[in-house]
Amino acid sequence: MEGEVLLRKNEKGLIFNFGYPHFKTLYNKEANFNIFHNSFGIKINHYLVKNDNQNFLQRICNVYMFQSMNFNDEKENFHHYYSKIDNVFLISFLQANQIGLSINIDGFNFKISTCEICYDIKHVFLCVECDTKISFKNFKHYVNNIIVSAAFFTGNFFKLEELYFQSQFADFSDLTDVFYRNSNTKYSFPYPITKFPSEWNWKFKSDFILSKDVENNWSSFIDEKKFKLFVNLLISKPRIYFSIRIIFDFYKSPSISRVSLMFVVLETLCEELNIKNTRVEKQLKQEIGIETLNRLKDKISDEDFNVLNDIVENIDNKLTNNAVHFEQTLRSLGMNYSNEERNILNKRNDFFHGRIIPNSHQIESEEEFINLERKYNYYSLRLYVLISKILLKKIGFDGYFINYPKIFEDDNEMNLKESYFIKL
Asked: Does pTM top 0.85 for this prediction?
């Protein structure tokens, strides 16, 4: 079937109307759609169908993923990636006024920068270019790890309009094909470091003066070497990649569930990075318990011994291992953690076994809920900072990280004896 459509472009992709009875074809999962204009054609990969409020005999088709007819997923080509962003200073974690960087991963050179595609397109894009021929599948995999890494350090992740260009020519002078994808999502979340501590002046207490020397001391950045290490960490450990994607939902999750999410991320990091070369207190206590039980073996019945032995060896075995992973990971990375962090880690079980609201805590008013949410928000910030410290320590970062619990402390309930920025 062939026909003409009025094709439009908006921030969600391509839009066209499809009239009766042809719009029924849009609901056929087996149908394939191609659009041609003169000699140029595109293949529609995915689309959404909406009712036309102005004409019930028409349907509106929103094409959010498409590619040019000759776009090749398997053949090696030169590739460029562009993602629409709203901040030309997106890569703000670099040293001084550096607005781009180049890294080599697995023998491929990638140039990362913010740029404009052309004069006619009034948007800024995050650009990733590879100067070597590579398959689209592999290029896309590297790009995903690069942009997630950049997002972790900036606190902004864009999955709006994405464009992949490919060509057999390094200068893209001829035979350029395109792949378009629109996820229409954007995330904002905490970021671990900043070059400009003064941006937090609005949260510093009135009696605190941020001197120039202190600001220069707290100012931190990520260089190309550290960024490359971070990207390689995500590539080599996909679970960490997806854990960081969980952090992107930090502010989109309610305070109570946010704590659980941060515990999931923390435990994943500990599982992936735990060298397990140290013995921790919980393991020693379990051994002491077994030794003590063996000394009492002749003084109790076999039935009682078996019950107690099973408890010592297996009680919350999975939870014990989680606690072991926390401490082992921190020690294997040469990290210390504060009493405040220790107290939060000890609350891990409360958020995984139906005890989100402590038995001793009576909820009798809306204010009680609000106070509890404030407390859980504090827990989630503590966990985020600990997660950030682990990741920064893993890539050898040497600088100051943002102490969010101190910055967002409740003046009426706490006065943390901590600095707004802490040296790692």
From this structure: no
